[in-house]
Amino acid sequence: MKKLLSLATMVILAVSVLAGCGGNGDSSTGSTGSTTAAGKFDSTKDITVISREASSGTRGAFDEIMGLIEKSGNSEVNKLFSEAVIASSTDEVPAKVEVDKYAIGYTSIGAVNDSVKALKVDGVEATEENVKNGTYKVSRPFIIASKGEASGIAADFIQYATSTQGQEIVKSLGFVTIDGAKEYTAPSTALSGKLILSGSTSTEKVIEKLREEYVKLNPGVSIEVTYNGSGAGIKDAQEGKSQLALSSRELKDEEKAALTPTVFANDGIAVIVNKDNTTTEMTTEQIKKVFTGEVRTWDKV
């Protein structure tokens, strides 16, 4: 009887040791470090693709850079994965990635926070410096566009946004400054009236600060801004519904025929994943395959 009890005790101890050592099935495979242990990253799970709405300037720039737009005769076909989750604003993308361990998305580098992780793209980090020196290729301009040549308050606001004072604001918010800025001086004859802008949600942080500081210098001016996406803002300016359009992508040739664009900042588009994701970098080709749905799990990246 004592021998049986001793044998049973040894078996229990052996099982406990195995359990303590992760005998429950913790394994690691692939470049992303797949693991099936509770709470860990499992790279065999499906990737959640998060993109922006069709009118987004960020999406327009991202799709073009990543080759998601393909020509078909005289038209263009967008190859975005049909089951992609669509986010309606700049800040919504990192919010969705933060709560989904297997998600991937993209957003302005100015909108990246500690809740998500920005990947290196083609070996280059998504930083202000790398956008400025041209090594980080996933980048785009921030544009203010007027119907014809801007005048009055609209022209003066553009002058402020591109001035040394305006560029200090651009830099302070993590965006990339333009070259050739000059000091802004308020007009000797005080301006008064309303300025209406509409467009890119990606520009919201910098435009709100520019608006705040501009009105301090020109208290007779009020500025109304609607953040409804680059495409909608461009259309508003073309139709005369707003005086200035805000775009986070280059204007198309047909848009340039009606609007005069001015670059007031530059921005990188960060490719972001959940902080639990063990992936640290991807190539543009890998990103394209994920966003078209050709690659569906992290262990295939």
From TrEMBL:
PROSITE patterns: PROKAR_LIPOPROTEIN. It is a lipid-anchor. Pfam families: PBP_like_2 (PF12849). Its main location: membrane. Residues 1-19 form the signal peptide. Residues 43-163, 186-299 form the PBP domain. This is Substrate-binding domain-containing protein.
